[in-house]
Each structure stands twice: as C-alpha cells, then as structure tokens.
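User:
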Amino acid sequence: MAFKYKNIDQEGAQILDAISSATHFNRWMYESVEPYCKGKILEVGSGVGNISSFFLDSKKEITLTDLRPVYRKTLIKKFRLSSEKVIDLDIAHPEFKTTYAHLLNSFDSVFALNVVEHIKDDVLAIENMYSLLKQGGQMLVLVPAYQGLYNDIDLALEHYRRYNSKSLSQLMSNWAPIKKSFYFNAMGIMAWWIGGKILKQKTIPESEMKIYNFFVPLFKIIDKLTGNRIGLSVVCVIEK
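Assistant: Predicted structure:
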C-alpha cells in the first residue's frame, strides 16, 4: 500500500510556516547537511522549501519532491521551477522500482529531512531511496531523536516513531556501512519537551520559533561543545 497522507495537513502546514521565517535555524540545518549533498541532488519531502531555498540559491543541481499537490504547486511558484524539477515521489510505494524506474540509479545525493518518521515501513522507505543513488552516491536521513520525547506534536504530525543514533544506524546499515552519524540541535530537546509534554501543544507557535531562531548562534556553539552527541534530531549518512 502506498503512503497515506492527510490532504489537509493543518499541523504540518502551521509548523512549516512557522519555521519558514526562522532563517538562522534553516541555514544552520542546511549547513549541517550540505557537505553530504553533492552533484545531482534529490530532496525527498521538500514541503514549502525551507531548506530547498539554500540549495537553489547556491546553484546546486537539485530536484524537489513532495506527495502533496499543494506543496508542489507552492514550490513551483515560489522558486519559479519547471514541473520537471518538482516531482511527485512516494518512497513508500510498494511498486516503487517499477513506478519510478526512470529515476533509479540517477542521483549523486539523496536526502530526506523529517520524512522517514512519517512512514510505517521505514525499511521499505530507506530501500527505495537507496535505489535512486548512483554507485558512489550518498544518502542522508535526518529524523526526530529519542522516543522518550514523543508527545502531542509528534502525534498531530502522524509520526510513527522517534529514533536514536543506534536505531537509525541499524536501519540504514542494512544497505551500506554508516559513513557519518551525529545529532543536531541539542537545545531543541528542552523546547520540544516543554511544548509537547508540559504545554500539550500540537504545533509550534510562530512566536516561539522566532525567539528560538534569535538564539541559533548560541545553540550552534552548544552543539559544538557537546560534540553533536545529543540533539532533537539524529542524522545518518551512507554511501552506495
């Protein structure tokens, strides 16, 4: 069965909109993943393009994807892209290698930020993304960290699970040895716990995201001091 999603993703749209104005935070995430994204790049689940914009501004050769037609239309209009550069891609499709045969072994880099946690069969999702890589290509996956942090926001966003470095590495190492694994955004742990566990929020208010964005320069230093050993998100990279 192909991936099922809400046609109207109210909570997800609110969070994407809140994060869209958090330019310091978005650049920080871009800078954290960009070193592993070279050559012909595919972004899985581009949303409204919060990270895509930095790749496009840097003149990277990138194809954007999203399941929701409303997001694809937004990406095409926002970045003035052709429909060939913004495509419909379902990484949970059971007939993926037939349906997307024209994309197999086509990309030097494939990355998915906050996507895999939405998919029940995450093994199938990783396998399908891996099949899109050229030999020697790299795949990067960023997902929410620590199951103990699972809260009402995760539930509203239809997250099946949260990960840690060990569980994500075990998942991705089914296809290739782990090239790099690290955590991202240590200070986000407290904000996520307070918002979802204490305040029982189901989304991230834009006002709170603006405050968080202001302190990003400090939070980047904290990540360096911790050696990226803890964080609200965990990242893994493999090479085909």
